[in-house]
Specification:
The protein starts with a helix and ends in a 7-residue tail after the last helix. The chain is globular, with a radius of gyration of 24 Å. Helix 5 runs antiparallel to helix 6, helix 5 runs parallel beside helix 13 and helix 8 crosses helix 10. It folds into two domains: 42 residues, no CATH class; 219 residues, MetI-like fold (Orthogonal Bundle), CATH 1.10.3720.10. Helix content is 77%, strand content 0%. By secondary structure, it is mainly α. It is built from 13 helices and no strands. It is found in: Cell membrane. It is a multi-pass membrane protein. Its main location: membrane.
Amino acid sequence: MIGLVVRRLFQLVLLLLGISFLVFMSMFIAPGDPATIIGGPTASNSDLEAIRVDLGLDRPVLVQYFDYLGGILQGDFGYSYQTGQSVTEAILTRFPNTIKLASASMVVAIIIGIIAGMIAAIKQNSWIDISSTTFSLAGVSIPNFWLGTMLILIFAVNLQWLPVGGLNSSIFTFQGVVELILPAITLGTASAALIARMSRSAMLEVIKSDYIRTAKAKGVKRWSLIWIHALRNAMIPVVTVIGINFGALLGGTIITEQVFAINGIGRLMIDAIAARDFPVVQGTVLLVAAIFVIVNLIVDIIYALIDPRITYN
């Protein structure tokens, strides 16, 4: 297990180097000039040149990239072209909202997905199974922006049961939990559908296994057979889907944050891309990539905890 962690951390470093290079170069290839955006329409050519010199944009691209890497090694991700704020500070200010949203969405997805998938497998070919399959198809097909807008219209505008948007309260308060309900359902629906489909397939495969038939012949109670003997073995592929989806949720909160006016990493990234704010874009992309790799490492560790037969030698 220690060897696995060391290998993955080494891969993480290489991956982040590659991503940083691609993002850095793509920002320079994209049309637009940060100096023009910062200077505004009234800036003269001399003003624009002075801005480029001040930001270091007059130097060769590779020189700028290696200077950027040197700053990262010292914990310095640069400063925002727009606000002058440290990129690290900007990310730390916004990231808690994204973590809250992604975590709450994953909780919704896991609860709905696993329960729906397990019940559908137990009641195969029944109306419950058909309903679960229909829900899975609808959940994957419905766009987040449409679902979020409909939820706001129904529960926030018409019924006035829930707030329209924003995460302004602590998650440990009642108001903080209430603020998370609509965005968490919006973001977690697609993941819940995928988890439900995977849970159903895995459970159907497990309950047809020889050891399940043997346990049933020995008179093991049905609830014990399903929730103790079958569930643990069925969870391995489900954990894979959960891990991948959680990493995707952290990077895919952009639309949901826009719909619900949540000041998270997604909105920060969109604003930075529109303003050609290179340091902020690079910092947010590197953060999301690092978290995605770390989440997958955690998933591999959970594999071994669920099934001791799995080794990583």
